[in-house]
């Protein structure tokens, strides 16, 4: 397939990127990771150009922040207009209408037939942190339950709630108290010989036992759940599990918090992923694609819960900044006018189709899963043992980058490739990216792992 969009003028990284990389290594700590050693010059839609003139197709989407594409013209116009009027006053000093308009729109979009309120912050971690504060204030309880493989941020509280030790937690303790981790379903890795239904029943039973063996439900303020685990490997729970957790929360007066930071804003084919499970959360955290790359986050929730905090107890200097609010309002209009929920479903169907074709060639692909355009493949040494193949994922990501495709890994053991391409990607760009992915698999695996039979 002739490359129409990817243009490689130099080796990756190119000479200009290498020069800047030397400065980066001198002045920026190694603790801040970089997936690609090139430096961006400009980006539009699903295409990214680096300082050496190399053009890439983006399947990473700024770690899920670019659902409407890079520098969408309508977002750019909104930001330019806002910047020409004012950039910052702090909502705490002098309010602005875009904050109110965005809160109203999100309150109406979020699931739940009850009055809602919305508070805005800067990052996903801040949103989760404030959801915890609000839940504790409302319930007058301290305990928080998150789940194995969950990711909620890098602040003290959200790092504590996060499951992966390295690189997120190692050496950064002590951690916040009264945080507990419950089991979360992982159908691909269920015990051998167990049906999906049996496994679902077992995980539900384990969660119920958890509330007997680990912590009393009467002490829990909130259960915080990603409707689809993001950094954990795009793990999709079954509906029965999510509904049962919601029922238990209702039974014991525990708040159910849906962490929609990576799953929201049309990524899964619905505005919010929790809608797939016919469950209504009490609180919902949002960020990433909400602002099309402009930092903004929020908590949406039942009005009586959100109002539990007294004046001055939540918020911050930059929280709900004017640029973020204008960007988010434009994003919501784009999702509706460009039918991005439907587009996500179509993208996801094509990606899964391609992944299944690759799985018929390469034994290293153990599982393909996801909802909408939130798709992942899990790589293993072989399908019998299901031993994670982290090294293979690293090689694929590197090989793809050298060929002009930006990819991301995920998973507790780093053996998952996840796809977060902009939902505005064209069909031709999508096909070219998938072709590069296949070429990368051939380069890494063909000699040792190719098979001719199906899975």
From TrEMBL:
Keywords: Aminotransferase, Pyridoxal phosphate, Transferase. Pathway: Amino-acid degradation; 4-aminobutanoate degradation. GO terms for molecular function: (S)-3-amino-2-methylpropionate transaminase activity; 4-aminobutyrate:2-oxoglutarate transaminase activity; identical protein binding; pyridoxal phosphate binding. GO terms for biological process: gamma-aminobutyric acid metabolic process. The keyword Transferase applies. InterPro entries: 4NH2But_aminotransferase_bac, Aminotrans_3, Aminotrans_3_PPA_site, Class-III_PLP-dep_AT, PyrdxlP-dep_Trfase, PyrdxlP-dep_Trfase_major, PyrdxlP-dep_Trfase_small. It catalyses: (S)-3-amino-2-methylpropanoate + 2-oxoglutarate = 2-methyl-3-oxopropanoate + L-glutamate; 4-aminobutanoate + 2-oxoglutarate = succinate semialdehyde + L-glutamate. It holds the Pfam family Aminotran_3. Its EC number is 2.6.1.19, 2.6.1.22. Its cofactor is pyridoxal 5'-phosphate. The keyword Ribonucleoprotein does not apply. NCBIfam families: GABAtrnsam, PRK06918.1. Belongs to the class-III pyridoxal-phosphate-dependent aminotransferase family. This is (S)-3-amino-2-methylpropionate transaminase. It comes from Neobacillus massiliamazoniensis.
